[in-house]
């Protein structure tokens, strides 16, 4: 837990799930800079937090928690299930009622009118583009639009998106390696159509997924092509036993789980990701390719926390090793331990990862075994089997 001090008060904030080993903060200098600006501490007037205040991309709920006592039910829009859960916990810790903020996902319809729009710049330029397109019709000439991010996160392309979709845009001076973006809505501006979602057909060298149609909503990793790790995995994809329960964990656009379903239409596939955009992409990819009567479930959640123990035969996993800008194995460790709990005795976890990540050591410690199925100079595909009877 770490404390964010503002002129409105101090807030004890945590990420979700809470992990005492995780030393990463639940807020950044970019969040603090934006809050100081809103409170009039940066040499400008305070921002009137009246009407509908929308916060987009709030990483762990720091902005929403601080605003909850000063704006009339701020609206948070996030692509992250974990961020949404962190926001709920941080709001409660600050003494706010559950309805002190309205929590929406990037897949929900945004408010019809927005009077103050606050944007925590995401890592994905595509996600920013999609969200600005979705929110632009709700803006008016008097809407206050302020973005925030670390200097390393705000590029010329970032500013060009605000300029093209919202209106005239400028930036602030840097403070503690953070910067603000100020954009003035121009209702007459014609930003063009939203290009998302997109899609493509997988080429013949895509192993079990060759010829499948992939659908990507904005923000999905490798939105215009199959990433090389998944491509390598597909060439060695295990065939599920008839009627097996397969989980595509950290599913992204759902290629692995969809390929498993196409190979065995009797399998039940559960697609899980913490990104609402990813789950929507996986469902669209599955519907475009799988047999009409194939069974699948789509879950935005915290790894395998929502899956009953001992109910899964096969877990397919390409874990992320970044948490926003920080390299971390926290997510991978949680995925591996969750897989062990969810698998039936004899069930298998298949993991693809860069060689240098050393996943085999973690799997051997957790499962007591880890077999190298295939490898190349960059990737290693591992198989761990749950023991017991």
Q: Residue-averaged pLDDT, rounded?
A: 92
Q: Within the largest sheet, what's the order of strands?
A: 5-4-3-6-7-9-8
- Rg over alpha carbons: 22 Å
Largest sheet composition: 7 strands, mixed
Structural class call reads alpha/beta
How many strands in all? 20
Strand content: 25-35%
H/E element order: EEHEHEHEEHEHEEEEHEHEHEEEEHEHEE
Give the CA-based shape. globular
Q: What is the count of DSSP helices, taking H or I runs of 4+ residues? A: 10
Note poorly predicted spans.
322-327
Q: Which percent range fits the helix content?
A: 25-40%
Instruction: Give the end-to-end Cα distance, rounded to a whole number of Å.
Output: 40 Å
Describe the structure.
The chain is an alpha/beta fold and 389 residues long. The chain has helices at 29-38, 62-67, 81-93, 125-135, 156-165, 228-234, 255-263, 276-289, 330-342, 359-367; strands at residues 2-6, 9-13, 53-56, 75-78, 102-105, 116-120, 144-150, 169-171, 178-183, 198-201, 213-216, 245-249, 268-273, 295-300, 312-317, 322-323, 326-327, 343-354, 371-375, 379-385. The strands form five sheets. A seven-stranded mixed β-sheet has the order 5-4-3-6-7-9-8, with helices on both faces. Strands 14-13-12-15-18-20-19 form a seven-stranded mixed β-sheet, with helices on both faces. A two-stranded antiparallel ribbon has the order 1-2. β8 (169-171) and β9 form a beta hairpin. α4 (125-135) runs parallel beside α5 (156-165), α7 packs parallel to α8 and α9 packs parallel to α10. The radius of gyration is 22 Å and the shape is globular. The model is unreliable at 322-327 (pLDDT under 50).
